[in-house]
């Protein structure tokens, strides 16, 4: 599954290089696809509504888990990039890599990052999340679709959510919840934290 998404991204990049099409031109032509991501994300509200009773059962642990996991999702990549000596532009471009694209693009532009680099980080993050969550679930002996789905959506945004719906409707609904809440949490707090540490100055 993960290799399928990686192969598609690699194939697209290879095709652009082969025909000599600048990425900026490709991005301009694909703008309408990015625009459609917004309504597609909103449409995920239906499975959330259908799973509402199960979501209510777990609202306390999910509310505790979300801030910690969403913060770590941004922090570990920023810490690694910073230790490697990355520029402020690169840091701003990968900070929102675990957030769904429509929200992540707005955050990245606000932080002063590059959307093209963000989109690459989004693809890599989504692809890597799928096997990592699968391995972690196996290692921790977790077989609850609600928890697996939430982890996939929280860390792997839309790509993780697609994988969750392949597991079950319950996993898909909880992935949608994780993706949505991570987007809201990050959109509100990441720009504030960015300014507090002086990155936006």
Q: What does this protein look like?
A:
By secondary structure, the chain is mainly α. It has one domain. The chain has eleven helices and no strands. It has helices at residues 2-19, 23-29, 31-42, 45-50, 52-57, 59-83, 88-94, 101-111, 115-139, 145-167, 169-196. Helix 6 packs across helix 11 (169-196) and helix 8 (101-111) crosses helix 9. The longest helix has 28 residues, at 169-196. The radius of gyration is 17 Å and the shape is globular. InterPro entries: CidB/LrgB. One of its GO terms (cellular component) is membrane. It comes from Vreelandella sulfidaeris. It is a multi-pass membrane protein. It is found in: Membrane.
What are its keywords?
201 residues; mainly alpha; 11 helices; 0% strand; globular; disordered N terminus
List the helices and strands and how they pair.
Blueprint lengths: L1 H18 L3 H7 L1 H12 L2 H6 L1 H6 L1 H25 L4 H7 L6 H11 L3 H25 L5 H23 L1 H28 L5
Helix pairs in contact: 1-9, 6-11, 8-9, 8-11, 9-10, 10-11
């Amino acid at each position: 599954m993960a290799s399928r998404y990686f192969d598609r991204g690699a194939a697209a990049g290879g095709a652009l290089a082969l025909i000599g099409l600048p990425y900026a031109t490709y991005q301009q032509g694909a703008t309408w696809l990015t625009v459609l991501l917004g309504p597609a994300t909103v449409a995920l509200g239906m499975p959330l509504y259908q799973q509402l009773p199960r979501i209510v059962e777990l609202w306390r642990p999910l509310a505790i888990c979300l801030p910690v996991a969403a913060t770590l999702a941004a922090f570990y990549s920023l810490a690694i990039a910073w230790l490697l000596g990355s520029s402020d532009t690169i840091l701003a471009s990968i900070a929102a890599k675990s957030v769904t694209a429509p929200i992540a693009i707005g955050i990245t532009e606000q932080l002063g990052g590059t959307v093209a680099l963000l989109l690459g980080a989004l693809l890599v993050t989504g692809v890597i999340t799928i096997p990592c969550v699968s391995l972690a679930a196996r290692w921790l002996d977790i077989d609850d679709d609600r928890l697996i789905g939430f982890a996939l959506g929280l860390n792997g945004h839309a790509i993780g959510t697609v994988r969750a719906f392949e597991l079950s409707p319950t996993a898909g609904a909880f992935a949608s919840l994780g993706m949505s809440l991570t987007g809201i949490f990050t959109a509100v707090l990441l720009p504030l934290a960015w300014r507090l540490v002086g990155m936006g100055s």
